[in-house]
Description:
By secondary structure, this protein is of the alpha+beta class. It has one domain (11-172). 19% of the residues lie in helices and 33% in strands. It contains three helices and nine strands, in the order E-E-H-E-E-E-E-E-E-H-E-H. A hairpin with a 7-residue loop joins strand 3 and strand 4. The longest helix is centred in the first third of the chain and has 15 residues, at 33-47.
Amino acid sequence: MAPLPEDSTARYRFDYTVNGEPHDFQIRASASPAAVGILAGDLLTTMAPELYALNVVSVSHAASGSGIFLPVTTGIEGNTYGTGTGAYEQKAWYVDFIGRSTAGRRWRLALFGIRTLAGDFRYLPGENATITSAIAVLNAAGVGELLAIDGADVVVYPYANAGVNAHWQRALRP
């Protein structure tokens, strides 16, 4: 498939801090800020047992066709999910939810601040109850609340990958 422009759908960017580092994740959606905030809040609440203290700093929105993100209120700004702070090397640890749109485009959502990496860097269905529940939350998203770059709804795979992010690994080196 030919690449699509990054701005082919509306996007919500969730800026957060975890383990003392700033990160963000994006959700493509045609839904309202409140609806996307509920989805993100449900995801992060479900993930809380597997997360170090993750604080949502702000949320911004870019309309379809625009690269300009403007602040919006979703209802989860300022919320903290999870507890504690990980060891220095855990700053680069993440979990990656992956799937496909109903039209066949790849989709992913990565969260930093994960407490464990799974023995083989993949959480298989049922291997980790928290990850399995988080996948169910994502798959329960309403129409237009979780889109891929092609604007089609997403089906999240029943497993998630985990790992040590190479960019953050290099950034953390002395």
